[in-house]
Amino acid sequence: MLTIIKRLLQGVLVIFLVLTVTFFLLRLIPGDPARLIAGNAEESVVQELREEMGLTKPVLVQYKDYMLSLFTGNMGFSYFAKNDVAYVIANSYKPTLVMISIALPSAIIVGLLIGLLCAVFRETPFDRILTSIAVLFQSMPNYWVAIMLIQIVGVKLGWFPASGYKDPSHAILPALVLGLPLTGVFARSIRTNLIGAMQQDFSKAAKARGVPYRNVLMGYSFRDTLVGFLTLVASQLGFMMGNCLLIENIFAYPGLGLQTLNAILRRDYFLVQGLVALLAAVFIAINTLVDISYMYLDPRIRKAQGGL
Amino acid sequence: MTEKAVNTKKGSNFATGFKSFMNFCRKNPTFTIGFVFMLVIAFIAVFAKQLAPNDPYLNTPKIMLMKPFFDSQYPLGTDTLGRCLLSRMMYGLNISFTVGVTAVVLAVALGILIGIISGMDYPGPFDTLLMRVVDVQMGFPFIVLVIIFVSLLGSSVPALIGVLALSFWAPYARNVRGSVMIEKNMDYISAARLMGAGNGRIAVRYLGRNVVPGVLPMVPMDLSAAIVLESLLSYMGLGVQPPEISLGNIMGDGKNYIATHWWITAMAGIVIVLVAIALTLIGDALHKQFDPKLRN
Question: What are phi and psi of A277, to 5 degrees?
């Protein structure tokens, strides 16, 4: 229990640090949000707007104001969306969530299946073909896959919509781009670890005791690979969130990633800060959850950590 | 294992090293394929200027958007300005490799340095601070970092190398720190201390030598990731700027004509896919060699 509380406190500290870095970096980069909003308006108008946005105050005062308002639950105001940051986020998280919840479970299921088949039929031509496909999936740059899929599946064949978001069918191509490399990574990791586990003493001992092959495979060897697999899934989630940004940009898919990119380009300070904080929070929450689930999955770790 | 033992005994003997390397190649055919392919690609990248059949910057509007495999003068066809695509890809490989290799070398050096300092300091304040920095780095979305960096420094090759190095060092630091924390309590370190070795000597001669091989298998994968990311940023217009050529630039140029002339983007992408596959194969073999659990 103590471990969990400690982890959560550390997580809050990391979010705070990420926000601080973002805050000052954003104000360091050239570009004036007031000028960007006002366009070609006269300097006096822009100056007025700057004052309204609080940009004329010293940076440290702005920082203090922002952090204090954050503690009261106010994430600030997006001048481009003309709405609260919290409202903008609440309005654009859905497409991203749909995309991830198609991509991640399919990648896990297909990856597990391929990995399992490869391990069972290891060193056969069947295994080699599947492994090569997994390497290919993993190595293709995702933006290139996205362009090709838009061209071939979206435009030439017209099977799925290739841009925008109206209903979940729009999420299929982006989810495919997001999920393919993950599938490759998962399949290869399961294959390697499962083959390793099948040669370990506990698997051999179970086999010697007369446990049927299928039970040895699933109940002993496969179970041993799960902790490692969980770590891998968690470590890929960070990359995945970065990739969302890019994929949403290519597919003009109006989710959190596209918002982030536009917010940075428009110097929409508060929106960027809110989105980066959200990303960091999700990232940390996932890692903490994974650490906790280790304790349930692996008794050895539970003991080392002093129990739950 | 045996060939490694031989290697350390006669470390300076080139012939033995070469022999054990050939042995390793024979045992790992996939490694050999990847390695030979990378040698060829690296050769093309380094000698792009000598090997390219045409001037990659020369506009010849008369022959623009020529199809590949039709003309022996322009084997892979031409782009929208009638520039030879094969030559452009060779020059592009040169820049992609320069950026990728430099960035990864910097990242590995930085990661090892910080990892050793952090591990030796553990559980001191320095270690706590550095590990929080690593956490922040790993929790920070890469693209956001890149865009902020590029707007701050402008998009030039050095800025690109800096950004990529900054986004790859953290896992090395964490990995090295972990091994240092284990190694530094071993007897041979205490023995070295008794003989009067200072922190610097311990770090370089003793810890460094034992800790560095552990992170080597990560290098090919990161090199592949760096080359892919470089091409991505150049494709988005945030990386290498025209007239300089990178594989990403070529794809970016081709993007506007993709409906009718898809092969420009497709071919440059295939080159990157092949490089990434070759590096993955090399990385896999190294993982197997250095991780005792996977060796059987």
Answer: -60, -40
User: Nearest residue on chain B to A243, judged by CA atoms?
Assistant: B143
CB contact under 8 A, A143 and B232: yes
Chain A residues inside the 8 Å CB shell of B296: 196, 199
pLDDT digit string, tens, across residues A227-238: 788 878 887 877
Q: How many domains does chain B have?
A: 1
Q: Which domain holds residue B129?
A: 43-294
* Residues A220 and A203: beta-carbon distance below 8 Å: yes
Beta bridge partners of A78: A83
B residues 103-142 lying closer than 8 A (beta carbon) to A = 132, 135-136, 138-142
Asked if the structure places residue B215 within a domain, the reply is yes
CB contact under 8 A, B259 and A151: yes
pLDDT in tens, A27-72: 887 777 777 777 777 777 778 777 777 777 788 888 888 888 888 8
- A68 to each of A10, A29, A61, A117, A175, how far by Cα in Å? 20, 24, 11, 55, 38
Q: CB distance from B167 to chain A under 8 Å? A: no
The answer as to whether B11 is a domain residue is: no
B167: CATH: 1.10.3720.10
- Asked whether residue B37 is assigned to any structural domain, the reply reads no
Residue B32 lies in a domain: no
pTM exceeds 0.90, yes or no: no
